[in-house]
Amino acid sequence: MDQSRTTAAATRLQQLQERVDTWRLTRARYSRLPEEFWNEALSLTQTLGVEAVRATLRLRFDTFQKKLGGHSPGVEASHGFVELNPTPPFEVAQPGPMLELSDATGTRLTIRLGANDALDLAALVEAFRRSQP
Q1: Scanning 50, 100, 122, 127, which has its CA 20 to 30 A from the CA of 25?
Q2: How many CB atoms lie within 10 A of CB 44?
Q3: Where do runs of H (alpha helix) occur along 1-133?
Q4: Rounded to two decimals, what is the model's pTM?
């Protein structure tokens, strides 16, 4: 991207931010942002990107997306291949034994053990029974 074009757009965004800030100080409460501001903000997204413009002007993400029509201007949808990492974002425990104790009052204790974990079952059951009123 042309550096002078980006610099000019950044300057325009700074000027727009100042105008929006002034408008916010003088507007009637809960009034909508004027369309001229929206139009200029949306045109700046082509050079600076959606998030940079939205964040600088402190505009709500959902409202900004509605104004964009659900897609970024100047960006065509890609129908290419997307590789996904099949590894989950968390560690999945290895399957192992599960112990569940409950009493007449509905108090419940569930323990899931790993495949190689050891447990003194008799002591655990005794402690559970002692804890009951």
Answers
A1: 50
A2: 21
A3: 3-26, 35-48, 50-57, 61-68, 121-130
A4: 0.50
Contact 17, 57 (CB under 8 A): yes
Token match 């409202």: residue?
63
Amino acid at 4: S
N-to-C CA span, the chain: 73
Dump pLDDT digits (tens) for 3-55: 778 888 889 999 999 999 999 899 888 888 889 999 899 888 888 888 889 88
In the chain, which ranges are E strands?
A: 98-102, 108-112
- Contacts of residue 54, defined as CB under 8 A and 6 or more positions apart, other chains included, come to 41, 61, 64
Q: Tell me the C-alpha distance between 32 and 47, whole Å.
A: 25
State how far the Cα of 13 lies from the Cα of 22, in Å rounded to an integer.
14
CA angle 32, 26, 12 (to 5 degrees): 75
